[in-house]
Amino acid sequence: MTDKVLTANRLSDGISVWLDAAGNWNESLQEAFVARHKEAVDALEATGKQAFADNKVVDVNVVDVEEVDGVLRPLRMRERIRAGGPTIPYAAGYAGLSAIRSAVA
Amino acid sequence: MYRYDEFDHAFVNDRVAQFRDQVSRRLSGELSEDAFKPLRLMNGVYLQLHAYMLRVAVPYGTMNSRQMRMLAHVARKYDRGYGHFTTRQNIQYNWPKLSELPDALADLASVEMHAIQTSGNCIRNVTADHFAGAAADEVADPRPYAEILRQWSSVHPEFSFLPRKFKIAVTGAERDRAAIQVHDIGLHLKKNEKGEIGFAVYVGGGQGRTPMIAKKIRDFLPEEDLLSYTTAIMRVYNLHGRRDNKYKARIKILVHETGVEELARQVEVEFAELKNTELKLPEQDIAAITAYFAPPALESRAEGWAQLAQWKKADADFARWVQQNVQPHKHPDYGMVTISLKPIGGIPGDATDAQMDAVADIAQEYAFDEIRVSHEQNLILPHVALADLEPVYRALVATGLATANAGLITDIIACPGLDYCALANARSIPVAQEISTRFGSPERQAEIGELKIKISGCINACGHHHVGHIGLLGVEKKGEELYQITLGGSGDENTSIGEIIGRGFEPEKVTDAIEVIVDTYLGLRLDPSETFLTAYRRVGPQPFKDALYGDKTAAAA
């Protein structure tokens, strides 16, 4: 079975988040809890539905990932870009999403 | 320009208060996402890949420096220091927080701006020629009519839940700079033999997955009938437009399936009922709206001619910028300045808060406080004295906005693509950046001449690839990005839809493919005055296919 993680966008600010092992919505994919068997995926899906119903997150999805040298990598490019931020430097003068993420980590 | 009256102010402020309440109830959990989503969309708020996105309307692309400063303020306070000007003459912010959006909209309302009808199945922001009111070839200013349409269509109860979104564009010159033939309704302002103002009416154009060129259903519609005739079109569409299939719901499909003669007949039947009702535009109302758009008092500045010649002689970069980015104005002592938002290797359409503030300052000091957004994702100063071009240029250089490439190969339209957009299948911006970098030398661009590259990251075609002289459509194939190339598209008075040239190219090969196309053109053009589009229309696709794929089998694969 392909490894899976649960992702969504936070309701209040729309920022992409992933469910971590402690049950929190984390801004880093690398902190995500990885489901490696069906029961774990079912649990992810149930958690996602509940978080959506509780108005914590929106656009909840289970996505396929692979672990390469301890680093999680979504299989679809769309999800890789969601996780890493835009692949381009922002408009001149802006430090970029990675700087933001490391600042809040 | 148009100024809000009491009704407009009250309406927009009420809408902000209403949205503030809706956001508050959403955040508290009182409103579900299903209930809230259509409400946020009615206020221009989307959810994209990384965050919410706010699309702010710039009616017919016209604003003043106070409004531009507010756009900078919103970028600074509620976003991450920049905004993205779009092909619909609007601006999008990529990172606003839902919880702060009501404050952002309240700030925008304070300068007569809003995000209403920038989304949803309603009549969207009406677009117009970005040189309106200034162009030497203009019959009449299209903006008063765009404003009349804006007022009529704002929260129009009958047309707020159409089968699909609806876009209207107006141009006031023979040279179509508003791409009216790829809009749901295109209006071409003209004069009849008696000298009266009216419109040629086009209907059923559009891009997206089924690109179609609009059909002309009226040669000359008197201006007093603008709203009654438009209402007649909308009624036919609202009644017969397909609601069973999202992909067949635009009026272009209705026109195609019904046949243009029959559709025109149905419109005429409706129009006969509406022609002499309250929708008939009184002459004094047209005059009152037109007065808002009276051109600034342009004094004679004949000294500019000699100064300009001297400055051009002294500074080759300035001369190049004037050559490329300044167009003739109605008044011989003035010019229309295109501020390119396409720095070499940069992000098409993006501007920082500091750049927006700088443009506002320049417009206030040198350009009668007027700024336009073009559908080609640039900014325009429509009225600049030739005598002021040099200081304007210096100020633009200081803020990184003096790229001399308007209409050239690096003046690329690109949608946000997969770097931001939830609908995209492939990235657009990095492709634009690489092409821009490859062809960035001024000499090479000048040698190539007019060439419009337009890039979309999905079939919805926000990057207008169908009407690019060279169009690029990003698709996802087996999990990877692939770029399909079309040639020969055009969005002007001789609109054409580009033809797919052959199999697509991987991201690392697409710039090479563009170079092959450009080199093929340079090799076959009759002389440097034959543009890429003219040459393509003369020779067709085969020489380009041969150059790209070598043989016909490969091209078909």
UniProtKB/TrEMBL annotation, chain A:
Look up the domain of life of the source.
Answer: Bacteria
Q: What is this protein called?
A: DUF2849 domain-containing protein
Automatic annotation (TrEMBL), chain B:
Q: Does the keyword Ribonucleoprotein apply?
A: no
Please report the stretch or stretches of sequence annotated as the Nitrite/sulphite reductase 4Fe-4S domain.
119-272, 411-523
One of its Pfam families is: NIR_SIR_ferr
- The answer to whether UniProt assigns keyword Metal-binding to this entry is yes
Q: Which domain of life is it from?
A: Bacteria
Which UniProt keyword terms apply here?
4Fe-4S, Heme, Iron, Iron-sulfur, Metal-binding, Oxidoreductase
Q: What InterPro entries does the entry give? A: NIR_SIR_4Fe-4S, NiRdtase/SiRdtase_haem-b_fer, Nit/Sulf_reduc_fer-like_dom_sf, NO2/SO3_Rdtase_4Fe4S_dom, NO2/SO3_Rdtase_4Fe4S_sf
Task: Provide the Nitrite/Sulfite reductase ferredoxin-like domain boundaries.
Answer: 52-110, 330-397
Name of the protein this chain belongs to: Nitrite/sulfite reductase
User: Which organism is the protein's source?
Assistant: Mycoplana rhizolycopersici
